[in-house]
Amino acid sequence: MSTTGRQIVWGITFGFFTSIFIGAVFLVVYPLNDWSELWTKHFMGIPFVVFVPSFSIVIGILLGALTGLYWRNQFLSIDHSLHQLEEGKHTDFQEKPAITEMQTIAKRIEKIGKQIAEQAKLSQRLATEKVEDQEARIQEIIEQERNRLARELHDSVSQQLFAASMMMSAINEQKSPEENFEAKQLKMVEEMIHQSQLEMRALLLHLRPVALKNKTLQEGIEELMLELSLKVTMDIKWKVEAFSLDKGVEDHLFRILQESVSNTLRHAKANILEVLLIKRDDLVIMRIVDDGVGFLVEEAKAGSYGMQNMHERALEIGGTLKVISVKNKGTRLEVKVPVLKNGDVAND
């Protein structure tokens, strides 16, 4: 039986006993000469014997319905709060119950809700820390494996390619002009070995990039350019001005430079590589120029992960990246980043 129905039953019972009590009191105060007077005496045109119980029962029904609805709302409020807890939502009583016992229950539900919320936050934080710790370990393992592969490639394949290149150069120098066809074939092989060396240098640059640990961007660029100038036959020039930058900006610019240089080694077939890093009018400008074969910029944007990665890195530091490439005349990549201090553009 519902709360409202139960209260109505109690109201009817209360009205019935109330009518008996009122009738008894009336008989004591106004004794009857004859029992027929119960029917002959009227109140509001209704026989007294009918009016008293009917009125009492109606009042009992009304009181039972009102109290039943009140308690029903109280229980529904508690049920709603418990349902909110079950759903994992914060529970807050907009209207405090008027009854002391219900207030106690409401306070306990709010307390339990806060405890559950705190436990949920703690669980989420622990889960996040666990995932971050796992990602850090995975990245460390990947870094170690990349370094191992880079060392093995450098110590074996790269050295063998260098030796093969030297041997092919020596053979081509010893060939006489009469052996024209064979010399062309050997020259092609030498060029293929040379291109394979460039591909290997680019691969090693991806596998084991030079880090900026305890170094400025300028120091990292000079170290990278010196290393490349010793290992490739390309004419490498660089101009780097001295100025300070935030560590995050330096790291992103350096990664863009590495990606661009790697693409030049692999695809450009360039003879000259120029790198420029300057600061002008609150802008840091980094420019990488080669005289290679060039490419279609729109196609590269759509299909190249490296190009997309460079654009994203530039955007992350509030900069812009512009690429201009002309077929058989080379490529120029330029990154411009505003220099900020405390959220405002710096003034020199």
Which tags fit this structure?
5-stranded mixed sheet; two-stranded antiparallel ribbon; 9 strands; rod-shaped
Task: Describe the secondary-structure layout.
Blueprint: H1 3-29, H2 37-40, E1 42-43, E2 46-47, H3 48-86, H4 100-174, H5 180-207, H6 217-231, E3 235-240, H7 247-268, E4 272-280, E5 283-290, H8 297-303, H9 305-316, E6 320-326, E7 330-338, E8 340-341, E9 344-345
Largest sheet: 5 strands, mixed
Beta-strand fraction estimate: 5-15%
Roughly what is the average pLDDT, rounded to an integer? Answer: 76
Task: Give the SSE string.
Answer: HHEEHHHHEHEEHHEEEE
What is CATH's topology name of the domain at 212-348? Answer: Heat Shock Protein 90
Decide which structural class fits the backbone: alpha+beta
**CATH homologous superfamily classification of the domain at 212-348:** Histidine kinase-like ATPase, C-terminal domain
